[in-house]
């Protein structure tokens, strides 16, 4: 709501000051996707260590996905990313993926099993949903943790508890606004995002810019998956 408005009226406690070092054209990207990655990555950070395997069940075409890869890499995790084509595979490598799986060409569950020598991964971040949900669970090691944060292929079928019981798995579905309920939580999350942008840990990739007059084309390109990374409309 209000994305195309010239002005908005907001509660003062929801407004975040933008540091002068942040490019104004990218600040919304930093806050939206950055906040999500700030929450989703540390959500299981205590389980990560330098030998931990991290599986990102993503197509890595959205603007949040590269930030998650960068953040997990900075936490010292070994990052496994899944993508739909070779172009996105190169991008995933750039964002810190140690292993990249093109899931349209190979069985990602079998490939993860091979990479981890049958041990599975500690954490799975799945934004795809229905098409990868069961496979994502299968990639987890004993007492592994799965973070579901999207369903680009549709909502997964109801999850029987028996699917989790096979390896005592943990499943969570975090929502951004439930993590920034108070003013202090909002400022703390924003501050963490901006600090990581300033230090170079997080790098937002703006691959596509459109003049505001071509907003319809921008939406069509997004819908037809012709874009990758962040899309910015310039007034």
Automatic annotation (TrEMBL):
The keyword Oxidoreductase applies. It comes from Medicago truncatula (Barrel medic). The keyword Oxidoreductase applies. Keywords: NADP, Oxidoreductase. One of its GO terms (molecular function) is oxidoreductase activity. This is Probable quinone oxidoreductase. Pfam families: ADH_zinc_N. Residues 2-233 form the Enoyl reductase (ER) domain.
């Amino acid at each position: 709501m209000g994305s195309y408005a010239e002005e908005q009226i907001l509660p003062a406690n929801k407004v975040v000051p933008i540091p002068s070092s942040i490019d104004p054209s990218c600040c919304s990207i930093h806050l939206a996707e950055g906040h999500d990655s700030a929450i989703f990555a540390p959500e299981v950070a205590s389980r990560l260590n330098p030998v931990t395997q991290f599986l990102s069940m993503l197509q890595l075409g959205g603007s949040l996905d590269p930030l998650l890869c960068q953040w997990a890499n900075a936490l010292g995790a070994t990052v496994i990313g899944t993508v739909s084509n070779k172009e996105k595979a190169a991008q995933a490598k750039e964002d810190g993926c140690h292993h990249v799986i093109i899931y349209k060409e190979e069985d990602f569950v079998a490939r993860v099993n091979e990479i981890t020598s049958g041990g599975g991964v500690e954490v799975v971040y799945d934004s795809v949903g229905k098409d990868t949900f069961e496979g994502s669970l299968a990639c987890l090691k004993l007492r592994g943790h799965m973070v579901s944060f999207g369903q680009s292929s549709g909502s997964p079928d109801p999850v029987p508890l028996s699917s989790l019981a096979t390896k005592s798995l943990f499943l969570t579905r975090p929502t951004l606004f439930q993590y920034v309920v108070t003013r202090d939580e909002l400022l703390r999350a924003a501050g963490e995002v901006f600090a990581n942008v300033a230090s170079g840990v997080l790098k937002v990739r703006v691959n596509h810019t459109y003049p505001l007059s071509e907003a319809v084309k921008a939406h069509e390109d997004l819908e037809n998956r012709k874009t990758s990374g962040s899309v910015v409309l310039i007034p």
